[in-house]
């Protein structure tokens, strides 16, 4: 056995030699990067909440990702996450940012310029995205954010390497002094607090602004020149899904990460294109036009078999017939191309669907109140019988009468179908999937819809039995869904129930399932239940 000479190792707690950089541990360094990025995001959000909410760097980047995401990814996200797709997207952007910021923090002591450049880059990416989506002034929140992030990073790094007492100047490094661990941690903590207060402040300012906008809005809707006929009492089966969807339960689908808040006093709707007399209407001018009120069921093309992207409400709006009469549509027009104020969203509606006598309208109210922000305030399109993505543009800004050859809609560019007639669908709502059917009320019930055609028949099959005709609730009209029910009197135990509807043209829902992309899901809804 030979003995090798022992090299002296510095003790772990050896004091730092004067003039050397004291580099904090890995966790503290990574945290510094995260906190600096947090200050940037928080300050950016706060500044944007005061100037232009969509220009918040996190929101701008998230929105750009939604637009850029390939269609299958979007479809997958909506299917997997439903209404949580947006929070999850924001979370993913935040997570990527977190990792990037932690790496910058690890580098901040040894490669300070790289770390500073990294944080500054975040601000620039935010600024570029916000400007691309909005206008030049939208760079402002991100630029302030980048500067605040860099300042926070430098502050924390400096605090770790300098003493509050005058540092002994050396030839190698003048800024370094006695390591001050407590001072460093306090600075890091305070900076984190600034990040949280700025971000939280931005969220609070956003909420306060939307609440005050709502309060200013009031309930000043005109009375309809053509009121909706009262819904027959029999449309609603006892204990079933509400026939008129409570506004807070109404499904919501749109591409907007931040709910647009539009001030109606500065808003106007332009109607132009291939027309004799183009028209621009202020909100008050729109409200002064004749109004119809109608119960209409909306459905999304992304509704899965058995899904909940279908809701009914009482819409108040200017009938398209009044608009057509005013502007004089020229020969050759085959599509109505609508523009949203938000996110560059557009939709293609066939001209026939707004001129064939159905109750297509520019809606300003739902269930007796002005549209909520999420519902498209101040005005949106409603066209019965068509999926939402080809007909129901929210935050409406412009309607252009044109041709399919000339204009392509947002979702058509992303390979969804050009036309979107609502497919006949039916859904079992009672019992809930895997629930028990009560012995004292053994009723299977649900809804079926085939807007603008109407529901003629609903059939239910339990296990491998015969199709049985369900009894239909009172008909509210062809633009509405219809409730149905069937008494179950089979044996106790675990069963499967399936439903299929036939529309008023005589067409029965096909059995074969299809995906929602590109023109809507087909197939029969099926549930399992236990009977007592
Ligand atoms: N501006 C705008 N309008 C839009 C959309 C959108 O993404 N942006 N989505 C459409 C789709 S896909 C549907 S299904 C309906 C949903 O309307 P709702 O959210 O009021 O239920 O709005 C339509 N109008
Ligand atoms: Mo939709």
UniProtKB/TrEMBL annotation:
Task: Say yes or no: keyword Membrane present.
Answer: yes
Q: Which InterPro entries match?
A: Ig_E-set (IPR014756), OxRdtase_Mopterin-bd_dom (IPR000572), OxRdtase_Mopterin-bd_sf (IPR036374)
Q: Which UniProt keywords apply?
A: Membrane, Transmembrane, Transmembrane helix
Keyword rRNA processing listed? The answer is: no
The cross-references to Pfam families, in alphabetical order and at most eight, read: Oxidored_molyb
Residue ranges annotated as transmembrane are 30-48, 88-107, 114-133, 139-157, 184-206
Looking at the record, the residues that make up the Oxidoreductase molybdopterin-binding domain are 258-407
Question: PANTHER family, per this entry?
Answer: SULFITE OXIDASE, MITOCHONDRIAL (PTHR19372:SF7), SULFITE REDUCTASE (PTHR19372)
The entry's protein name is Sulfite oxidase
What organism is the protein native to? Microlunatus spumicola
